[in-house]
Amino acid sequence: MYRVPLSEKIGDLADKHFVTLEEDTLVGVAARIMRDNDLSCVLVSRKKSNDPIGIVTERDMLYRVLAENKGPYKVDLGSIMSSPLITINSNFSASDAISVMRSKNIRRLAVQQMKGGQITGIVTLMSVVGNIPSQSIELAELQLPEDLVAGGRGIISCPYCNSTFECKNDITRHIDECHILNS
Q: What digits encode the pLDDT tens for the residues 68-85?
């Protein structure tokens, strides 16, 4: 089974291929750019600035535009983006990135050279843990933060949905069946 070394620098795992669009870009235009570039998200910047202030994902487009019956050519990225943009230093470890994503309940992080520095890539939870069950890291085998193990009773929380389990086999099966196979 392939395992991402949890000590590996997140900057080495980040996808360097990303797009930044201005906040007044229409969702329909952004969706086309994402499709053409095989991207699951875009960073969003203020007009005439290249400094990202937020992020829009495929899920944002689906839930905040289509599910709300809003026209993709009437809604701009600024109105559906998640902001502020959560970032991580490229020198931090994969384990650090997983902890940040867990604590913020997000699936993507922008990777930057240093605090306040240039964005150099995007890392997703799936890119860290693997997106195929036969190659995925068992999240239950991570060094779990104490706040995920309830009062020493051995209750483990799923980092995706916060469902609780009593043993690592149950949480591993849950993650594989509910989050990895369905992503």
A: 999 999 999 999 999 999
CA dist list (Å): 50 to 23, 46, 75, 113: 11, 7, 21, 15
Please state, in angstroms and rounded to a whole number, the distance separating the CA atoms of residues 90 and 57: 21
Helix, strand, coil fractions of the chain, as percent rounded to 5: 35, 20, 45
Query: What structural domains and CATH numbers belong to the chain?
Result: 10-129 (3.10.580.10), 138-180 (no CATH)
pTM of the model: 0.70
Tell me the pairing of strands 155-157 and 164-165.
antiparallel
Buried-exposed string 167-180: b where 16+ CB fall within 10 A, e elsewhere: ebeebbebbbeebb
